[in-house]
Write a sequence for this structure.
């Protein structure tokens, strides 16, 4: 399962949802991967974890690193990484992972792709910085899935249109 997290009305805070939607629109996965818009749900996601072996989360991540920095954080390190909050849903995600572990719902492997935001303002669009980094965010997610033996195929019909749009 891949869950994109974030608040779409706070600019870069919604980067996880934007990335998940792009993966959903542009890629096919074999074996199938369940793509979930987790928004700011937190504990509401608990029932979805029950039968998952692996979980990939994509979210904005508070850090002193430069905006647009992408970090891949695994398993127990995730809760530590979420101690500094970008948004209130980080408390929910940390609690979600702790409760999933307590209830024996926790997937055996959890990876968080965390992206350092540039702007957290009332805005629907990502900053230019994160828009430029989106191909690398997608590539990172596809790479984690490949580690898990999941083949990703880009939708051929979309590729030329997306290349033209990216160049503009």
């Amino acid at each position: 399962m891949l869950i994109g997290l974030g608040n779409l009305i706070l600019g870069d805070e919604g980067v996880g949802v934007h990335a998940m939607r792009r993966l959903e629109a542009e890629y096919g996965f074999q074996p199938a991967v369940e793509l979930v818009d987790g928004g700011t749900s937190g504990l509401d996601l608990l029932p979805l974890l029950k039968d998952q072996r692996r979980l990939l989360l994509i979210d904005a991540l508070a850090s002193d690193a430069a905006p647009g920095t992408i970090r891949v954080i695994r398993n127990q390190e995730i809760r530590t990484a979420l101690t500094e909050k970008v948004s209130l849903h980080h408390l929910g995600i940390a609690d979600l992972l702790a409760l999933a572990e307590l209830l024996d719902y926790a997937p055996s492997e959890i990876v968080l792709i965390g992206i350092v935001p540039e702007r957290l303002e009332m805005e629907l669009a990502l900053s230019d910085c994160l828009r430029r980094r989106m191909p690398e965010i997608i590539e990172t997610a596809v790479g984690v899935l490949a580690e898990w033996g999941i083949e990703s195929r880009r939708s051929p019909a979309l590729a030329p249109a997306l290349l033209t749009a990216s160049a503009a």
The chain has six helices and seven strands. The first helix runs from residue 15 to 26.
